[in-house]
Amino acid sequence: MIENGGTFQDMLNAIFRPIVIYIPIHFCLLCACADVPSFLFFSQGDLIRGLLAAVGIDSVNMDDLCSFREYCKERATASHSRIPTEEKLTENEIGGVILGSMTAGIKQQPLSRAEYLAEKRSNISNKTEQGRTTRNDVYNEFERYQSWKLRQNSYDIHDVVLLLLKDSSMKQQIFDSAYIDEVQDFSYASLLLICQVAGVETLKWTFAGDTAQMVSP
Fold first, then answer.
1. Residues 41 and 73 in one domain
2. Domain-located, residue 207
3. Is residue 36 part of a domain?
4. Does residue 164 sit in the same domain as residue 203?
5. Residue 20 CB coordination number (10 Å)
6. Residue 1: inside a domain, yes or no?
7. 135 and 177 together in one domain
8. Full-prediction pTM beyond 0.90?
9. Which of 26, 54, 91, 103 could form a disulfide with 68 if both were Cys (CB 3.0 to 4.6 A apart)?
10. For residues 217 and 197, what is the distance between their CA atoms, to the nearest angstrom?
11. Residue 203 is part of which domain span?
């Protein structure tokens, strides 16, 4: 427990000190202490849970996040119809581009329709009429998904990443460096969050992954 007047670093120390190893391990963070490196291993969810606690965001329950797949299932049950675009493609475009692109991370909010239509990093070409139509269909579904989340009073993992990026505390280095495995499983916005709190002053980042396994842009 942190007493009143404790620093942000004190809060982080109290929250992360008990952590040893989580499985599956997505990355580890290096903390230099008395010249002896200390490694902490996290899954993405565990790190985000700790950061939420450190900055005092208690409106988000990481054990109760929603997902696009849940939305699609409920939509199909309620309307007896499927979304007009392929579900996995739409999920990847929403999570990987509209909510999870580097531009979204820097802006700390989803891409606008115009920004999404112009975005180069996408699995859907914007050079053809069909591609632009598909992108518009994807964005229409994104807006319906956002409305559904509001009605559910819920967040998905991409919302939480953007929420943390908005917090000024995430602009200070907490860990000395970051080593990230299975990097293809992370959105660019989540990588931005990790790199802001780990290694930003020394640019000590190591990424490992398999681009052949990437499904998000």
1. no
2. yes
3. yes
4. yes
5. 8
6. no
7. no
8. no
9. 91
10. 24
11. 8-61+160-213
Does residue 22 lie in a domain region? yes
To the nearest 10°, the Cα dihedral for 164, 165, 171, 177? 80
How far apart (Å, rounded) are the C-alpha atoms in residues 25 and 33? 22
pLDDT confidence bin for 217, thresholds 50/70/90: low
Q: Which helix (H) or strand (E) holds 44?
A: helix 44-55
Tokens read off for 210: 């398999």
Sequence-distant (6+) residues with CB within 8 A of 62 are 45, 48, 49, 52, 160
Distances (CA, A) of 89 to 84, 95, 122, 137, 198: 11, 10, 10, 11, 31
The DSSP symbol for 67 reads -
Bridge partners of 207, per DSSP, are 180
Sequence-distant (6+) residues with CB within 8 A of 59 are: none
Contacts of 118 (CB under 8 A, 6+ apart): 126
Instruction: State how many domains the chain has.
Output: 2
Q: How far is residue 142's CA from residue 91's CA, in Å, rounded to a whole number?
A: 9
Average pLDDT, the chain: 81
- Structure-token pair, residue 67: 């997902």
How many residues appear in the chain?
217
**What does 120-152 look like in DSSP terms, one character per residue?**
SSSSS-SSSHHHHHHHHHHHHHHHHHHHHHHHH
The pLDDT tens digits for 113-132 are 999 999 999 999 999 999 99
What is the average per-residue pLDDT within 149-177? 89
